[in-house]
Amino acid sequence: DLQICQQRTPTCCTKKMEESYQAAVRRERTQSIQALNFELKYMIVGHITAFQEAFESLLRFAENHTSSLFETAYRPMAKEAAEPVKELFTDISLYILGAETTVESAVLRFFDSLFPLVYSRLINPGITDLSEDYTECLRLTRQDINPFGHYSKNMVTELSKSLWASRMLSQALSLGIEVINTTEHAALTKDCSRALVKMQYCPHCQGLTLIKPCVGYCLNVMRGCLASVSELDAQWREYISTLEYLSNEMAASHDLETALTGMRNSINEAILHAQLNGPHLSATVDKVCGQPKQQEGNLSPDNVVPVKEAAETQRFMMAHASLNNKRREFINYMKRSRTFYASIAERLCDGDLVMRDSSTCWNGDDVV
Predict the structure, then answer these.
(1) What is the extent of the structural domain holding 344?
(2) Is residue 302 part of a domain?
(3) Average confidence (pLDDT) over 103-122
(4) Alpha-carbon distance 223 to 346, whole Å?
(5) How far apart are CA 9 and CA 13, in angstroms?
(6) pTM of the complete model
(7) Within a domain: 254
(8) This protein's superkingdom (predicted)?
(9) Cβ contact 257:166 at 8 Å
(10) Which of 23, 44, 103, 152 could hold 148 in an S-S bridge, CB 3.0 to 4.6 Å?
């Protein structure tokens, strides 16, 4: 009653043993593919972690660098500006990790929050009544009167260029893991598992436990079994090229580090522009939002956050170098894996599975 290992001579196999062999080849093939995938997956997962760590270091530096602008140049609003600055960098971090948001919405939300502070602490430092309604009116007015000139739009443009490549690379790395995980657990067809049993275990039914498959026979069986996986070859090569392109984009004109550290200067120019146009802005705001209560003399700054700049520069340089090195190492490794899916059958038939340097091997029907 054998279905796979049908023999002309007496055999020790039974139909139940054939079923056990089919379960065994499915398990072994999954383990073999997982072993092949391990190094590739390890490299991608490791790079995702290293990329995110280096990126977080750059973000922390850029956030502290930006906060120090308020702590040194705009002390009257330093304490209140801390929260909008923090929100801006949180939004940027979420954007790179793939959240459904845009750089433009993050930057403009920041400037919406910044305008009431600039208006009440720098342009009209005597304002005492900054009610919720008045603050909201200032926020909405910002969108119409554009107090920060072209600097807010320029900041959106610069950040969008550099953060786009980082976001795409982050998503591409996650996609790579998804592809590898899917191919690891690709189900073997019934014909495939039967062919594998015939190749690996049918010799056992004749008592030939030491005979291994012939190399050519193994390749034919594996290529048939992995036809759907090897079809990924063209897309995988294209995927590697895309990773290379995105990596080069990050390192070239859309340099992430330069854009993040340049935010401080963009914000400073925007605030100076608003101050220079203070009288015009005040006249417009008074028409739209009404006149707030005034107090004679300037308000004294209270609870200003301490400056924390010097020690961060060293960490930034290290994070910058780390990100560039990891990027280069990773791309060089991935380029070597271009043929991963094209050569998967050859790699599975390598090593202990087949008979090498011997005059006898199993061809599916007999020892030859």
Answers:
(1) 20-290+313-349
(2) no
(3) 93
(4) 8
(5) 11
(6) 0.74
(7) yes
(8) Eukaryota
(9) no
(10) 152
Q: Which residues contact 230 (CB under 8 A, 6 or more apart)?
A: 223, 341, 342, 344, 345
Is 8 contained in some domain? no
User: Is residue 15 included in any domain, yes or no?
Assistant: no
- Portion of the chain with pLDDT greater than 70, in percent: 89
Q: 36: closest CA among 247, 189, 222, 243?
A: 222
Q: Are 330 and 43 in contact (CB under 8 A)?
A: yes
CA atoms within 13 A on the CB side of 362: 26
- 186 pLDDT more than 50: yes
pLDDT tens for each residue of 222-248: 999 988 888 899 999 999 999 888 888
What are the backbone dihedrals phi and psi of residue 349, each rounded to the nearest 5 degrees, phi first? -90, 5
What is the per-residue pLDDT for 228? 87
Task: Return the DSSP state at 187.
Answer: P
> Both tokens of residue 350?
């390598």
DSSP 3-state of 338: coil
**DSSP run (H or E) holding 66:** helix 15-73
